Recover the amino acids of this structure.
């Protein structure tokens, strides 16, 4: 995941992000070092629609760089960098000139110069700008492009760049302060040569940045024009959980994208959550679906938008390069075909995901249970049926009757959420190559079939519902026969294999994947208890969250992408499943670890972080150095944990809201949504449940598990 090789054989490294400051307003973002100076290094720059618009914005005052003293986020889309400029000839060590740069994603930056000294200042201010206009795939590979020449323009004063191929352009424009502009083959400069600042006086400089592909990709998602499609809840309880939910919702607002296509002229905008910034700021089937699933307690509009964005791009034909097949759900959408290194070449519409298709069906079923209007359910149902047909047909064609993936050359080797090159290893640390049937994917397939059967039965379509029930029951038995491995000295007598290969050969070694089975229904109660014991054990529970691979196995690496690190969403999904299965002690252990970790990340949870064991004197958890932050399903994980602790399980067919709270302290949440109505739920310290705002005809059941 980190490196690629150029034509000379030299190794190129993926840029690290651990000290990068990101401001975001999808599809635009800015990645900056902590001093605010963009110098054309690593991943820094202004971006839009997967393209770097500027990689250099370097400020000089009197020929010197200001000295950085602080950085302050002003919201997901803005950040302020503060520096000082000192003069050796002054008779004081105090700063006399303060420089504040406010950078805005999708806009540009404001530079405020404040003379806080006692003498008149005559300043020579320069802002050097440059770009390579490369795509995000090249940036991720550690590749910089050739400098792009720029041209000075007037009225207003600015600089224009056009890529060597003519397929991208960008313009930077100064404000009414009318800077002098110089251009050149490697960039240009705005200059304010005689800026006078009296004592106590300030001067503001504004520079806007805009650009993108030429022409713009047709029907490509862009910035939303309407409000976020969810309600803001009022949460009272654990302060860490409150902060995690609040910060996550702020980041989710910044990660929103909108499909330019709509059902009709007056229909709502279809919004969804981009997977993550900076590498995956686009529609990702799996990631966008999981984000929408986690957000269902706050309304069904995000699920609706996500479903429609994916339904419009559902596979209709067999295409080897795109890995497309009829009914298959998109894995990722990009503006153009891109080279990702390691021989990986992906088209703009890529379907190489084995899990997005059953997850699409699950999202529709869960949105129906949370009250998605019947008109939307009925309109989306044919897409879900085609998706389920792909799942059943693909499994039927498999010699073992499992949902397995067969990657093409040049595509992703592994096609579930653990999709790195070494994502699947056995107990000896050996890489296991596909074709593989992953355990959680069988769980998704089972849950999709059972849920869609219930939805069809509620629509009076008994025969297809019964066929799906029978198929799901058969898959459940095949799973039970193939995936369990004995472990005489482990946390439980057995565990679920991460995958099985051909001939039903199981891949040994406990991994976090089995935690995602708990909510699917494919495990019986004894199986849930065995999995819970493993998730809470020191092998998988780091104390800060759930490790992706057991720490007791060869090849465990706490800072690997999928071989021992902790994924925020994976931990949250396990907590949801543990609560649903009534395994509250294990759920409490993982919840406490996740919330404590969140405090160390200022509640902006990274995509993944280190899986080192938590001890009394251990350091704080560290983000994986190239992790996306913010990231969609990480940001939504706070709401997922909130819903899990409340124990909310709506049943649209019987119009009953089951409430099975975890006994983890008092919690009250006002302002959730069920079938379009404001829902309020309170759980007292003693476990008593109060619910109000239920839709007409609905009741709630807070009985035992």
């Amino acid at each position: 995941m980190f490196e690629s090789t150029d034509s000379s054989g030299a190794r190129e490294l993926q840029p690290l992000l651990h000290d990068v400051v990101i401001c975001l307003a999808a599809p635009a973002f800015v990645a900056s070092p902590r001093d605010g100076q963009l110098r054309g290094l690593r991943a820094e720059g202004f971006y839009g629609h997967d393209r770097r618009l500027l990689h250099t914005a370097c400020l000089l005052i009197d020929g010197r760089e200001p000295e950085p003293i602080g950085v302050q986020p002003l919201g997901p889309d803005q950040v302020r960098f503060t520096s000082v400029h000192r003069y050796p000839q002054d008779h004081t060590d105090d700063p006399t000139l303060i420089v504040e740069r406010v950078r805005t994603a999708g806009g540009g930056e404001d530079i405020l110069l404040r003379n806080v000294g006692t003498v008149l200042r005559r300043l020579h201010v320069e802002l050097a700008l440059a770009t390579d206009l490369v795509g995000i795939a090249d940036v991720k590979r550690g590749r910089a492009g050739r400098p792009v020449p720029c041209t000075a323009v007037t009225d207003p004063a600015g600089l224009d760049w056009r890529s060597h191929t003519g397929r991208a352009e960008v313009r930077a424009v100064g404000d009414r302060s009318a800077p002098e502009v110089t251009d050149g083959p490697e960039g240009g400069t705005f200059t304010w040569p005689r800026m006078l600042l009296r004592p106590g006086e300030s001067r503001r400089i504004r520079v806007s940045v805009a650009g993108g592909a030429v022409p713009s990709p047709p029907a490509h998602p862009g910035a939303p024009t309407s409000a976020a499609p969810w309600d803001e809840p009022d949460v009272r309880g654990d302060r860490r959980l409150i902060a995690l939910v609040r910060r996550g919702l702020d980041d989710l607002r910044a990660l929103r994208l909108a499909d330019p296509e709509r059902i009709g002229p007056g229909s709502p905008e279809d919004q969804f959550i981009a997977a993550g910034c900076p590498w995956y700021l686009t529609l990702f089937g799996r990631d966008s679906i999981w984000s929408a699933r986690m957000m269902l307690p706050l309304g069904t509009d995000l699920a609706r938008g996500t479903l429609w964005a994916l339904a419009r791009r559902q596979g209709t034909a067999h295409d080897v390069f795109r890995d497309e097949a009829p009914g298959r759900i998109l894995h990722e959408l990009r503006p153009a075909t891109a080279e990702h290194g390691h021989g990986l070449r992906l088209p703009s519409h890529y379907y190489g995901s084995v899990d997005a298709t059953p997850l699409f069906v699950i999202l529709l079923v869960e949105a129906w249970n949370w009250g998605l209007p019947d008109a939307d359910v009925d309109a989306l149902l044919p897409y879900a049926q085609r998706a389920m047909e792909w799942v059943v047909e693909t499994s039927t064609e498999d010699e073992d009757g499992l949902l397995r993936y067969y990657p093409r050359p040049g595509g992703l080797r592994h096609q579930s959420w653990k999709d790195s090159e070494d994502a699947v290893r056995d107990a000896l640390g050996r890489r296991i190559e596909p074709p593989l049937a992953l355990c959680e994917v069988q769980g998704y397939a089972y849950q999709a079939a059972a849920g869609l059967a219930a939805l069809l039965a509620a629509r009076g379509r008994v025969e297809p519902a019964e066929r799906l029930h029978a198929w799901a029951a058969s898959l459940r038995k095949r799973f039970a026969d193939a995936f369990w491995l004995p472990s005489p000295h482990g946390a439980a007598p057995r565990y679920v294999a991460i995958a099985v290969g051909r001939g039903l050969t199981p891949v040994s070694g406990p991994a976090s994947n089995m935690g995602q089975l708990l909510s699917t229904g494919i495990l019986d109660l004894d199986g849930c208890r065995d999995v819970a014991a493993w998730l809470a054990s020191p092998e998988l529970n780091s104390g800060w969250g759930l490790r992706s691979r057991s720490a007791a196995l060869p090849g465990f690496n706490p800072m690997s992408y999928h071989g021992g690190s902790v994924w925020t969403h994976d931990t949250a999904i396990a907590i949801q499943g543990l609560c649903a299965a009534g395994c509250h002690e294990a759920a409490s252990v993982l919840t406490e670890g996740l919330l404590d970790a969140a405090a160390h990340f200022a509640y902006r949870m990274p995509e993944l972080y280190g899986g080192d064991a938590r001890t009394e004197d251990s350091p704080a958890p560290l983000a994986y150095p190239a992790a996306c932050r913010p990231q969609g399903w990480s940001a939504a994980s706070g709401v997922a944990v909130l819903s899990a602790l409340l124990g909310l399980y709506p049943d649209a067919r019987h119009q009953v809201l089951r409430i099975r709270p975890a006994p983890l302290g008092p919690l009250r949440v006002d302002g959730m949504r069920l079938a379009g109505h404001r829902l309020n739920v309170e759980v007292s310290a003693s476990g008593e449940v109060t619910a109000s705002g239920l839709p007409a005809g609905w009741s709630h059941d807070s009985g035992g598990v």
Remarks:
- Confidence is low (pLDDT under 50) at residues 1-8.
- The first strand starts at residue 3 and ends at 5.
- The first helix runs from residue 136 to 140.
